[in-house]
C-alpha cells in the first residue's frame, strides 16, 4: 500500500479522577490552553473542531496543547469524518476539582 493513510489514532483520554492537581494547574496556566478552555466553556459540546479555535498557533502547537488538556482531564475529543471535535469535561473536572474551572474561567474585571 502506498501513500499516506487517512486513519488517525484515537486520542488518549485521562479521567479527571486520575489527574494530580499539579497537572491540572499546569494545563490551565498556559494562555493558549486557557483560551481553548474558555472557548469550549462558551459553546455546546462537540461543536468545535480543532481548527475552529481563535488562537494564534500552528497545527503542531495546537495538537500539543490539546494533548496537555486531555492529559489533565479537561478535554475529550472524538473524530467525525475529517474533523476532530472537542468538548470540555466540565462536570467531571468540577467533581474532581470543585470551583477550579469557575475561578480560571472568570474574565478579568
TrEMBL record:
Residues 14-109 form the HTH arsR-type domain. PROSITE patterns: HTH_ARSR_2. It comes from the Bacteria. Gene3D superfamilies: Winged helix-like DNA-binding domain superfamily/Winged helix DNA-binding domain (1.10.10.10). SUPFAM superfamilies: Winged helix' DNA-binding domain. It comes from Streptomyces mooreae. This is Helix-turn-helix domain-containing protein. InterPro entries: ArsR-like_HTH (IPR011991), HTH_ArsR_DNA-bd_dom (IPR001845), HTH_MetalResp_TranReg (IPR051081), WH-like_DNA-bd_sf (IPR036388), WH_DNA-bd_sf (IPR036390). Keywords: DNA-binding, Transcription, Transcription regulation.
